[in-house]
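To the team - S-adenosyl-L-homocysteine complex, inputs and output below.
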Amino acid sequence: MNVNEPVTTTTLPVLTSAPSGLRAILELPDSELVQWLEGIGQPAFRAKQIRRWLIQRRISSFDQMSDLPAALRQQLAASFRFSSFEAVGHQIAKDRTEKLLLQLQDGELVECVLMRDPDRRTVCISTQVGCAMGCVFCASGLLGVKRNLTAAEIFEQVLVLHRLMSDDEKITNIVVMGIGEPLANFRNLMQALSVLTSDDGFGLGARRITVSTVGLPEKIREFARSGQQYNLAVSLHAPNDPLRTEIVPVNRNIGIAEILDAADDYHEVTGRRISYEYVLLSGINDQAQHAEELASLLAGRTAHVNLIPMNGVSELVMTAPQEPQTRQFVSILERRGIPVTVRKRKGADIDAACGQLRLNRLDKG
Ligand code: SAH
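Output:
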């Protein structure tokens, strides 16, 4: 999250590049994989076997799919890429947070992060190349948005981090808080989440997945009707519209009232408590009056505030407030009965803030 020198930087050997021009195997819909198998005289059930290897197991090549005939493994390797991206950067922080810089087939870059706590392993994944939202404190939006990630490019980030972990570790939580606005890539996001939650996919409970949004009301309402209990986090960052529009420019055409309405609807439909994220920016949105106003806004709602002291971004002049200012903000919310936590810094010695690693790499050309 700081722009200090990383502790370790390696290029992962586990993701060697396949012959160029081939399609990544996970980009194939099931029906196409079955068709391909039938075309080479293989039974359809092999498709399930292959997907199980790719999604549930920690392997790094087709050759390791030990219950497939050797000839089929060779045909797979000759016909498809094993992965839809290559890890071109790998940083490990002192607290064992790990961050990967991934290069997609068209050369674009995205990031994903593995965070370790004593009782949980959380991965943070990206949904777009860049971001169009333009939040003034965020590294991801500085260069705009290039394109949406495909569903496979989204869920494979979880798989590649899963492969980095030791056999006795498993992923307990997924946060969709990496580069991009997830609800602006709704269809691919939903497809990716269904692979991550389904029993014949990655099999993680929907309640262990959190999608963070800048606040797109129509999409929040659609998301509420997914039939799943995903958690919703709304990036609020300010308690009134003039200030929010300064910090989050897309707010100009939306407004806080609409967002809260949609978030209330999300809570009613799914029963999940809503998280409101609030990045503390020194001298901008961290004053006592802001905390009071935020408390009034959220009073009576099933809400939780997640305060995030801003992570430094070298291109930007904004900073996190000093400790006492943060404590004052917290105590005002607490006094008003609003549940609040201050997000712990993870990977402080690597470029773990949203979009920073990609930005640094692009800066260096
Ligand atoms: N577009 C979505 C998800 C990606 S950002 C959203 O806006 O929620 C995920 C979270 O990281 C958001 O709450 C965002 O405000 C926060 N974030 C981005 N840059 C940050 C920075 N420099 N310091 C602290 N938090 C940051």
